[in-house]
Amino acid sequence: MQPLKYHRVMLKLSGEALGNEDGEGINAKQAQNIARRVKEVREMGVDVAIVIGGGNLWRGRVGQEMGMDQATADYMGMLATVINALALMDALEKEGVLTRVMSAIEMRSVAEPYIRRRAIRHLEKGRVVIFGGGTGNPYFSTDTAAALRAKEIGAEALIKATKVDGVYDSDPKHNKDAKRFDHLTYIETINLKLAVMDSTAVTLCMEHNLPILVLNLWDETALQRALVGEHVGTIVSDE
Fold first, then answer.
1. Is 210 exposed, middle or buried, given 0-12, 13-18 or 19+ CB atoms closer than 10 A?
2. Which domains does the chain have, with CATH numbers?
3. Which of 15, 102, 128, 178 is 20 to 30 Å from the Cα of 119, by its Cα?
4. Are 82 and 142 a contacting pair, CB within 8 Å?
5. Rg from Cα positions in the chain
6. Around Cβ 134, how many Cβ atoms within 10 Å?
7. Which residue, among 48, 56, 57, has the nearest Cα to 10 in the 3D structure?
8. pLDDT in 10s for each residue of the chain, 239 residues
9. Which residues of 138-156 are buried (b: 16+ CB within 10 A; e: fewer)?
10. How far apart are alpha carbons 35 and 5 in whole angstroms?
11. Closest by Cα among 197, 202, 233, 231 to 215
12. Which residue, 223, 232, 233, 172, is CA-closest to 35?
């Protein structure tokens, strides 16, 4: 086996990754596919933490369009991420992967409260840790939660798992001439307004020099190759 470049990573998943073809709801088969990918990474000896969105169940902007208070809509979205975290936990444990769900919003009956040192201890014991509830605060996205938790637990990279093989200058599904970037700086990502992660998350990564890897999770080997240092997808960093 090739030596690892990254020994602890944060995997950022959108809620749609668990959804059906239209990105809505929870598809057990999709959850199991993700669980198998994560299991393969754990078997490489990599510590894995996960932040998952809730867009397959609820989007805060939908609530705002309905006239709902933004904070209320955002809290509903945080609860949706916990539902997704529990679904993914179930899929991982069916694959024999020890998993813990930690929530920034306290709900002890279904998840542990987020405590940084406890999360690190779980990782040291070989457990996958899924962080639900975002940051616990409205107005912050799960992208920002992923960047924040990644730094707190000492992750060496933040991996943005998508259904495309990197970052493009336009949507490759609608533009066959779209250009894929092999590398971007944090400033380029922000200035070009590329849909990598929101600007708060990118800025946090920039301030702490945390690389962001954007790759296709559905490519069966992409994640594993990235972890041993092969160039896969797009990397956002200072270098």
1. buried
2. 8-236 (3.40.1160.10)
3. 15
4. no
5. 17
6. 31
7. 48
8. 689 999 999 999 999 999 998 889 999 999 999 999 999 999 999 999 999 999 999 987 777 788 899 999 999 999 999 999 999 999 999 999 999 999 999 999 999 999 999 999 999 999 999 999 999 999 999 999 999 999 999 999 999 998 888 999 888 888 888 899 999 999 999 999 888 899 999 999 999 999 999 999 989 899 999 999 999 999 999 97
9. bebbbbbbbbbbbbbbebb
10. 22
11. 233
12. 223
- Tokens 């020994």 found at: 7
CA-CA-CA-CA dihedral for 165, 166, 167, 172, to nearest 10: -10
Instruction: Record the tokens describing residue 128, joined without a space.
Output: 């996958």
Report the C-alpha gap between 187 and 18 in whole angstroms. Answer: 31
Report the DSSP beta bridge partners of residue 11.
50, 159
Residue-wise DSSP of the chain? -PPPS-SEEEEEE-GGGGS-TTS-S--HHHHHHHHHHHHHHHHTT-EEEEEE--TTT--HHHHHHTT--HHHHHHHHHHHHHHHHHHHHHHHHHTT--EEEEESS--TTTSEEP-HHHHHHHHHTT-EEEEESTTSSTT--HHHHHHHHHHHHT-SEEEEEESSSSEESS-TTT-TTPPEESEE-HHHHHHTT-SSS-HHHHHHHHHTT--EEEEETTSTTHHHHHHTT---SEEES--
Cα distances from 208 to residues 4, 92, 155, 201, 239, in angstroms, run 21, 30, 11, 11, 13
Look at the pTM and tell me if it is higher than 0.85.
yes
